[in-house]
Amino acid sequence: MSLFRPPYDPGFEPMLFAWHKYLDRARASGEAPLRIAVEREDGLVSVFEAVAPAQDADPESTYRVVERLVKFLLWSRGGWRIHFQGPAAIGRRLRTDYSENGSRAFDVKIMGRVFEKRFEVALHSPATFPEAREAVHFPGGYLDGYRIGFDLGASDYKVAAVVNGEAVYSEEIPWNPGEQPDPDYHYRHIQEGLNKAAACLPRVDAIGGSSAGIIIANQVRISSLFRSVPEDVFEKQVKDMFLRLEKEWGVPVKVVNDGEVTALAGMLSLGETGVLGVAMGSSQAAGFLGADGHIPGWLDELAFVPVDANPEAAVDEWSGDWGVGANYFSQQAVNRLALTAGIGFPEEMRLPERLEEVQKLLDRGDEMAAGIFESIGVYLGFTVPWYETFYRFKNLLVLGRVMSGPGGTVIVDKATEVLRAEFPETAARVRIRLLDEKSRRVGQAVAAASLPEI
To answer: Which tens digit of pLDDT belongs to each residue from 149-175?
Structure first.
């Protein structure tokens, strides 16, 4: 049993511990093969190989862990089809849960919408299981010319004017997109930010952007920023919003998921590859850049992947699932922990302002505020080796509003302490990196500007 507990979440059960217990049971009972693959666009397939208990004395625990594994693969890689080879009872139950009327109906609906395919679970024998087929994407990093970069978050959007890789103007502009059903609200705010940046440049050669949600070929497939927009209006006015921007500005425009830009910002700032970037803002964004300097094109939506194995863990308000990253590495986490600690807020106060209040308390030396950021640090320390199960990285870059100020240092220090004490091998491989204050807040907008090639 670990000596480290989140001060305001003593029931936290690291997903990695549940995974290790599962593997120990499987090996003790005799191993049976277990293979899971997720298929996405253009026939690309990501494969994960493990083992299952051959003689299973606790099938319920086995299924709970395997289902969490499937959930992680689905949201980290992305796809419209799950391929499964393993115990038949587990496969049948997965097919039931990951259906339009199952317990994972949210996942089924979103993935079907993202990839524009009917979602399904395919059960396989060893002879029919698909082979891995991955892709390579070049991440940008173009610094020439006069560029604008933007980063769309749920509480503010950041915009920067960049000249040959150097920001000459940057600003964080508050907005509230998630509650706005009119897409003109979003488009107007984005255009206003771009025009502010353009006023600082002699001309505009290219525009690069990052956005919360899933962006494929400059199309918005799904995003919490537009969750109040009716679906029919979304299809007509939101899906091709960035293509419309490109046409109106008459320059190359490239927009990708904010997590991918986080990883790109890490490579540009650190001068190193093998980066898993995690942005802790209104939700959790993530992106991965491999040791070869390329982006594999996975979804990396770690806000929806499980990190807490406690079935009584906090429930995500959007997906309805429990123990997922959005409630552990975000403003939502700060709010949840603050309420548990006994810190009160006016009911009408939004999450960004609640975060600022907790940060002010920390500046004054408040012990409850310190415990909130220490709790997130404990979460992170136990989650880094869990992420290593699915990603190969040597730099974990953390940024976003939650990481601003002394709270970010508290989180990194506590996570590093947990790693060194509990997982020394991981600590020797992975460094948790925190950028300077300005880069933490607006670095993604500057990195996004480097996405399009002129």
So the answer is: 999 988 888 999 999 988 999 998 999
At the top level of CATH, the class of 146-258 is alpha beta
The confidence band for 441, taking pLDDT boundaries of 50, 70 and 90, is very low
C-alpha dist (Å) from residue 176 to 145, 182, 231, 347: 32, 12, 19, 17
Residue entry with tokens 């979602």: 119
CA distances from 15 to 113, 130, 368, 402 (A): 28, 27, 26, 22
Instruction: Please state the rounded mean pLDDT for residues 126-144.
Output: 88
Cβ count within 10 A of residue 264: 27
What does each C-alpha distance from 369 to 250, 339, 357 come to in angstroms? 48, 11, 9
Q: Which two tokens stand for residue 249?
A: 């500005």
Query: Which amino acid belongs to residue 66?
Result: V
Kindly report the average pLDDT of the chain as a whole number: 93
380-399 residue pLDDT tens = 999 999 999 999 999 999 98
Chain centroid to CA 4: 25
Angle at 41 between CA 38 and CA 44, to 5 degrees: 55
Residues of the chain with CATH 3.30.420.40: 146-258, 261-449
Reported pTM: 0.87
Taking CA 434 as the corner, what is the angle to CA 432 and CA 435, rounded to the nearest 5 degrees?
Answer: 145
Where does the pLDDT of residue 217 fall: very low under 50, low under 70, confident under 90, or very high at 90 and above? confident
Torsion of Cα atoms, 143 then 147 then 152 then 158, to 10°: 100
Residue 258: what pLDDT? 81
Spelled out in words, what is the top-level CATH class assigned to the domain 261-449?
alpha beta
- The set of residues, in sequence order, having a beta carbon less than 8 Å from that of 6 and lying 6+ positions away, is 12, 337, 374, 375, 376, 378, 379
At 74 the three-state DSSP class reads helix
| Whether the Cβ atoms of residue 309 and residue 79 lie closer than 8 Å to each other | no
